[in-house]
Design brief:
By secondary structure, this protein is an all-alpha fold. The chain is built from two helices and no strands.
């Protein structure tokens, strides 16, 4: 019984880690899941992270409201 629990827990950890990597890639390139590979919103990793997590990097990993994402939610900066 314990062996099956370890197997199931390990599989769940691998799946969650895969989702984490996938979403970090989306943030890194400033993409959504429905865009193609050439994103016109890719402004570099720092600006991409600020557009998702907000301007203050000290609270990026703390799940509290820290001013919200940069922008108005409708208009986003693009690569010229």
């Amino acid at each position: 019984v314990k062996f099956m629990a370890v197997i199931i827990d390990s599989a769940l950890c691998v799946a969650v880690f895969g989702f984490l990597l996938f979403h970090l890639k989306l943030v890194y390139y400033n993409q959504t899941t429905i865009e193609d590979e050439a994103s016109r919103y890719d402004l570099g990793w720092r600006k991409n992270a600020e557009s998702v997590f907000g301007a203050n990097p000290w609270i990026w990993l703390i799940p509290i409201y820290g001013g919200g994402p940069v922008g108005d939610g409708v208009h986003w900066p693009t690569v010229s």
